[in-house]
Structure formats: structure tokens, C-alpha cells
Amino acid sequence: MASIDLRSDTVTQPTEAMQEAMRRAELGDDGREGDPTVRKLEQLAAAKVGKQAALYLPSGTMANLCSLLTHTSRGTEVLLERSAHIISYENSGLSLLGGLFYRPIPGTKGAMDLTALDLAFDSGLASKNLAPALVCMETTHNTAGGRVLPLEHMAAVHRVARSHGANIHLDGARIFNAAVALGVGADQIAAHADSVCFCVSKALSAPVGSLLCGTSAFIDRARHFRRMLGGAMRQSGVVAAAGIVALETMIDRLREDHVHARLLAEGFQRVDSSLVEASAIETNIVRVDIAASGRSARQWVTDLEAEGIATSDYGRSQLRFVTHRHIGRVEVEQAIAAVRRVWERSARPRARAVG
After folding, report:
1. Can you list the residues of the chain whose pLDDT is less than 50?
2. Which top CATH class is 13-249?
3. pTM for the whole structure
4. Which of 25, 190, 224, 312 is at 20 to 30 A from 74, Cα to Cα?
């Protein structure tokens, strides 16, 4: 394995404080009478995003699916920005388990076109006297390169959805990155949605888990779907303890990841301006377009691994680099140097072909 891992912020390891909290955690049976440490995490999570209650789940995928099942009934249409994570990576759960339909809404930088969203209610299943459609937003937006939805856009989406009697779910896996980037509390972002989920296992560095937050009635219903999906855990306070430390101590440091992502992008831009637009980097994700190199993204991943850098390929011509607390300025410079070497090796054959 490469020594510098930029594939995702999910590779973060728990801090010493988290490990100690896990060792000392008070435990119970979360699937029965409840686990006291899990309950503490859920209360803290709900307070962080300004909701009444929360539910601890093993993953963000399960949290999103539980939310969609709770909000809807079979045959409901779910409206999402066309490159949303739920469409790109989680849509089998919607169709196979939920009996739901999804309608992709065109967007820019992860933000749905408001006119298209409004029209979707008139032309979609929601106009056939079925249950009102659910609208989903995502911030930060993974496929858009960690882009943050502007609060005024979220408020506008909320107004459109409400005008058609629809609820709103926010896939906020990295909502605290968005909050830090905007300089606001996460509750100000979540205020534009009826439910929100977020991960503590990404840049917040806890080992496992996501929280789904909403009204008390919503969470009571979601708890039944968590059990149905196999997510009812037992002495899960062991890992929930790390989530408490994450929410109490790890949010403010996310701005370091954002700084390092911008430095990474600026370095790649110096290698070649076609690779990335550094000014577009808002959080901790850097999407790099290597099409001009003449080599596939999969080849780049292999070449960079040989240089000691782990990254991810996205399609045939894009790479994704994600900064996190294990990535500092030294690692950033090493990654830039590795990309420069691979780029130069790719450029020489192209130059000979032209000559």
C-alpha cells in the first residue's frame, strides 16, 4: 500500500483520545433497552444540527436509505441533483428495497436547477396523485469536488419542495466541512431540511458510524427501518464513544484539511493548468482531470501508487484526492512531486508522437 493515502478521508484512524474513550465507554444493548453511550452521541448529534433527535447507524448509505424509507412509501418519486451520491452509488437500495423511483434534476456544481425542480413535480409521478415526492440535497457535494451548497440555494430548494407538499432530506455526509467553509454552524445548514445525516467516520476520524437526525417522531419510525435493514447494533457504545470525541474536538480542525486541499490543487495547477482549477476548491476534495496526459485514470492510479501515493480514479479521465488529518504540508508536497513525475513521463511520449 502506498505510504500517503489520499483516496478518501474514510482512511483516518481514531485519535488516542478516541481510543481511550472507547476503552472506558459505558455499554448497554442498543437494540433492546439502549446503550447509554449511544444515547449520549445521539443527543449530541441532534443538538449539533438543530434537530430534536438522532439515530446512530453503521454507515452513511444505511442512514440515507433509512431516511428515504421513513419519509416515503413505495411508488414515491425522489428528486435529486443528477450527480448526487445517492444516485451514483446508492440507487439500488432505493429501487430494490424501497420500491422508489428517482428523477435526476440537472444542476451546476451540485446545485439543482430550481426551474427544473419545480417542473419535475408537474411532469413526474407526483402529478399522478401518488405520495408527494421527496427532495434530496447533498452538501458537501462529492461528485462536484466537495462543493458547498450556498445557503440561499438550499432555502430556495426548501421553498419549492414545500410549495408542492414535499419533504426534504439532506445527505450531509460532510456537513461539518460545509459548515467550516461557510463559517456557520451546521444547524444553519440543516435548517433547510426535515432530516439530515452525517458521518463521523470521514474527516472527523471516528472509526465507524453515521447519524440520522430529524424530529422525534421521524427518528422513532426510522429506528424500525434500521432494524429491518440489519443496523440494530448491540454494545455499539464502543464505537459511539469515538463519535462523541469526534463531535466535541474534531470539527474546528477541518479547516486545516481545506487549506491542504487548496495547496494540493495549486501545486497540481503549477504542473499543468489543465489538471485542476485551484480557485474552485472549497473543502477537502480535489478532482483532477488527467485527460490531456493521454493516459487513463486507472493507469495514473497505478503509476502514483508506485510513487507512494494512493488516490482514486473517477471515470476514465479523472482522479480524486481527499485531504484529512493524516495529510500535512510534507505529504502535500510529496504528492505534487509525484504527480509532476507521472505527468512528465506521460508528456514525453506525446511529444515524440507529435514530432
Report:
1. 351-355
2. alpha beta
3. 0.94
4. 190
Strand segments, DSSP code E, in 150-298 are 168-171, 195-199, 210-214, 285-289
Question: Which string of DSSP letters, residue by residue, matches 17-83?
Answer: HHHHHHHH----BTTTTB-HHHHHHHHHHHHHTT-SEEEEES-HHHHHHHHHHHH--TT-EEEEETT
pLDDT at 353: 46
User: Is omega for the bond preceding 143 within 30 degrees of 0, making it cis?
Assistant: no
Beta bridge partners of 212: 55, 197
For 38, 47, 180, 221, 328, the CA distances from 70, given in Å and listed in that order, are 21, 21, 29, 6, 41
**Residue 130, pLDDT score:** 60
Euclidean distance between CA atoms 34 and 15, whole angstroms? 26
Q: What is the DSSP letter of 148?
A: -
> Among all chains, which residue has been given the C-alpha cell 505534487?
336
In the prediction, which pLDDT does 96 show? Answer: 85
- Give the CATH number of domain 253-347: 3.90.1150.10
Q: Where are the domains of the chain?
A: 13-249, 253-347
Compute the distance between CA of residue 223 and CA of residue 229 in angstroms, rounded to an integer: 10
CA 283 to CA 255: how far, in whole Å?
A: 8
Burial class (CB in 10 A: 0-12, 13-18, 19+), 56: buried
> What is the C-alpha to C-alpha distance for residues 19 and 130, in angstroms, rounded to an integer?
49
